[in-house]
Write a structure and sequence with these properties.
This protein is α/β, with parallel strands linked by helices and 252 residues long. The chain is built from five helices and eleven strands, in the order E-H-E-E-H-E-H-E-E-E-E-E-E-E-H-H. A hairpin with a 4-residue loop joins strand 10 and strand 11. The radius of gyration is 17 Å and the shape is globular.
Length: 252
Amino acid sequence: KALLVLGGCCHDYATQKDLLKTGIESRINATVEIAYNDTKDTKPIFEIYKKSNWAESYDVIIHDECAADITDPVYVETILKAHRDGKPAVNLHCAMHSYRWGNYKEPITEGADNAHWFEMIGLQSNGHGPKLALNISFFNQESPITKGFTDWTTFPNEELYNNVQIFKIEPLVRGSQMVKDKKTGVESKVESIIAWTNLYGPNKTRVFSTTLGHDSKTVADERYLDFVTRGLLWSVNHLTAEGKPEKGYDKK
């Protein structure tokens, strides 16, 4: 049982919530409940987060909110405590740019007041490049999440999130774009880690994250849904070494 949290600015969450729910439920034996805020700003508040035991009914939380200007440390701590206590997490796209304050554009100091969300994710990002096609390289084939996946190129409206600081994660996928310099017109290749796993907090909570998923065409892509579903299964420790759902978690 998964909780999918999404809403906020800059994305077609009304469409993506259904794509993700249907995509995951059609692939594995799972139920996805949705907490959706239809606001279009950067301060989507979710009532469920206000409860101290908000996550107890779920096996995993999928964070897909775009909440860059939610800066209440008490509210954010309520979210993080569930994950520190052992609740697995999947972070998609703009979740990486949420719950940030202070000088987050510079590398944060681990343990600082403004570091906690980035520590859960395992990587600090503060922005992205132009909306272009994204070349995806599954360079780490040792992980069951990526095993057997082949490289592909997204539709031409994706975003390459930068890597300001990388913590103790296992990188899985690299993304690149050919970006033209506005002054010189010269194109150059820009690369970032775009998917990884993290073991968070004292309980080494499993956390899977990918910055892919800006465009609804990407979210609707069968390859994207296959990949995210594998990451979700890994987070709850029900993915085999071959990258298949454990018995009872497949749709057979």
